[in-house]
Write a structure and sequence with these properties.
Elements: H1 4-10, E1 14-15, E2 20-21, E3 27-28, E4 31-32, H2 34-37, H3 41-54, E5 62-66, H4 71-85, E6 90-96, E7 102-103, H5 109-112, E8 116-124, H6 128-139, E9 143-152, H7 160-163, E10 167-172, H8 184-187, H9 199-209
Parallel strand pairs: 5-6, 5-8, 8-9, 9-10
Antiparallel strand pairs: 1-4, 2-3, 6-7
């Protein structure tokens, strides 16, 4: 089994030496493009297995991720946990609202009620989406046992204290991120990458403000 960084590089999922904008709006010189990874089901399964092995002794009952890209990680993790524990572990997901919240739809709140929940995500810049998932799990009556990401890009910014729950990562791949107003990439005049990340949306939004 390859390590995660090797998997990401082999699928072209790590983009470096660029100027990218993340979901949070923060700017960064590198980016993890999970869309390049997701078509490779063998690798997504391997990553799900790594999540499962890490939490095999935590008596997890439901694995939850934010939609859309998080869904395969939730499903593969639940699949491998089920095989390891020889019992059914469910997979569920939250969905983004127009207000940028993460909420349960499709009756999935009933699946987590009273259950021991593991939240998994591919990567996070500030942890904002993960925290919204945690809130929805708690509102639905689920118990957060752990939160884990495939890659933690900034351990100082994203950790158990900032997330508000036991937080873990499978790998650390440090990528500095900057507020737009303090971004050295902007100051250096490096063009924003509009092919990957949220650069295109960022530029469109800024254009509307002018």
């Amino acid at each position: 089994m390859k390590n995660i960084i090797a998997i990401l590089k082999s699928t072209g999922a790590i983009i470096e030496n660029s100027h990218l904008v993340g979901t949070s709006g923060r700017h960064m010189p590198s980016y993890i493009n999970k869309d390049a990874l997701l078509p490779y089901t063998k690798y997504v399964s391997e990553i799900g297995k790594l999540f499962a092995l890490k939490f095999k002794n935590k008596n997890i009952e439901v694995v939850v991720s934010p939609a859309v890209a998080g869904i395969p990680f939730s499903q593969w993790t639940a699949y491998h946990l089920s095989k390891i524990s020889n019992r059914e572990i469910l997979s569920a997901f939250t969905e983004k609202t127009p207000e940028n919240e993460q909420v349960f739809k499709r009756g999935y709140d009933a699946l987590v009620r009273g259950k021991r929940v593991l939240v998994v995500e591919d990567s996070t810049t500030t942890g904002s989406s993960v925290k919204k998932v945690i809130d929805s799990v708690k509102k639905a009556g689920g118990k957060i046992i752990a939160v884990s990401v495939m890659i933690n890009r900034d351990p100082k910014l994203v950790n158990s204290k900032t997330i508000g729950a036991p937080f873990f990562s499978l790998e650390i791949f440090k990528i500095p991120s900057y507020d737009e107003k303090k971004c050295p990439l902007c100051k250096a005049g490096i063009p924003i990458n509009t092919k990957f990340g949220h650069g295109k949306k960022f530029l469109e939004r800024n254009k509307l403000k002018k």
